[in-house]
Amino acid sequence: MASLAARTSSKALKNVSRTVGRSTVSPLAASRSYSLLARSTVAAKPKTTFENVRGVKTLDFAGSKEVVYERADWPLPKLHEYFKNDTLALIGYGSQGHGQGLNARDNGLNVIVGVRKDGASWKEALEDGWVPGKTLFPIEEAIDRGTIIMNLLSDAAQSSTWPQLAPLITKGKTLYFSHGFSVVYKEDTHVVPPTDVDVILVAPKGSGRTVRTLFKEGRGINSSIAVFQDVTGKAKEKAIALGIAVGSGYLYETTFEKEVYSDLYGERGVLMGGIQGMFLAQYKVLRANGHSPSEAFNETVEEATQSLFPLIGQHGMDYMYAACSTTARRGALDWAPIFEAANRPVFEKLYESVKNGTETRKSLEFNGRSTYREDLARELKEIDEQEIWRAGKTVRSLRPDYKQ
Ligand SMILES: NC(=O)C1=CN([C@@H]2O[C@H](COP(=O)(O)OP(=O)(O)OC[C@H]3O[C@@H](n4cnc5c(N)ncnc54)[C@H](OP(=O)(O)O)[C@@H]3O)[C@@H](O)[C@H]2O)C=CC1
Ligand SMILES: CC(=O)[C@](C)(O)C(=O)O
Ligand SMILES: [Mg+2]
Ligand SMILES: [Mg+2]
After folding, report:
1. Are residues 151 and 235 located together in one domain of the fold?
2. Secondary structure of residue 52 in the 3-state scheme
3. Is 179 a catalytic residue?
4. Total domain count for the chain?
5. CA of 311 to the centre of ligand 3 (A)
6. Which ligand 2 atom lies nearest to the CA of residue 272?
7. Which entry of 253, 268, 356, 382 is 20 to 30 Å from 34 by CA?
8. Of 187, 222, 254, which residue constitutes the final position of a domain?
9. pLDDT at residue 403, rounded to an integer
């Protein structure tokens, strides 16, 4: 942001102060609009403007107005006051339990962890400084002690443990999820929350590992929030406060259904399944045409992750294009619609498979097996052993800053 700001023309600066001056926005939001507007003079982007609607921040996302909530709205003293009578009971200590739990603990909230005694998660929780009998308990005891029950078991375990856990979620407690999965696909999961508790969702849009690392860097992952059931009239406010408490950057509103549809779709698509398929297809064609593994890997993965994709993340797709040669730009402009057309039917099929519950049932069946950890590990090992990723290890080891 600083370097962009430094490049800002005085015309852009005038625009910024005018736009920001129209509404009261946090310094963080202001600096964000500042960088966007700075760019707009270069790329003729639509302006991002901020408005306050009854104290709520509404932003223009490419022509659609959406309400957002930011960390700046919840300074730590306000968060402490809000949760002064609460115990956040994190049930499950996988990737999200780790990230959300440690962030909420660092934010000074009263957090306890509940996991199976002496399982893999129990050991991880011990390593992260949770203390048996004080902040680390078997699942049932943690639910008993908690006021906000954060169900971060695996989606399959949320379903299989529900008959035992449901009676413990008594009136006055709040039930929290990080996925719409269990509640939305209730025909398959059989998770039907008691009718006398608030049921809310905070879904970080990224790995629990980065929920933690971004927070430690003073940054934050974006999360969605939703309310499934509001018995106190405070459910939404609680979801917002919890979203900030677990380390989010900004929060956007969704529903349980929209969250789970988009999440299952995204991870099977571009975020994970799609990118592995695309990388592999490109790599294999290069290899079939006599290119070395080093060349095929560099031209497919290394250049993407180390050079071009971070530019998309920092400043958008047009910026990445503009940072490449005119030769590359011409060809990429021509081929993008061809890839879009080829991929669109696959994405349509994927969305349908998510919506009709096929993906959910597969996941429940597979991850509900007692051997789920070994079974997944075996398939991940098959990926690790693909030539592309073996070549990648050597390429990474040659980075000047490589550390083992
Ligand atoms: N991973 C991520 O980054 C994201 C996850 N989410 C959502 O957050 C929730 C948690 O996901 P994630 O953190 O990945 O966790 P995992 O899916 O990796 O689940 C791990 C936890 O589930 C426990 N568990 C598994 N089976 C059982 C069982 N039969 N009985 C009791 N405990 C069991 C494990 O305990 P043990 O070690 O004892 O087996 C462990 O604590 C899910 O709803 C997920 O969809 C949302 C956004 C991103
Ligand atoms: C990290 C995340 O948001 C995912 C990919 O949806 C998940 O781990 O379920
Ligand atoms: Mg996700
Ligand atoms: Mg997911």
Report:
1. yes
2. strand
3. yes
4. 2
5. 22
6. 5
7. 253
8. 254
9. 85
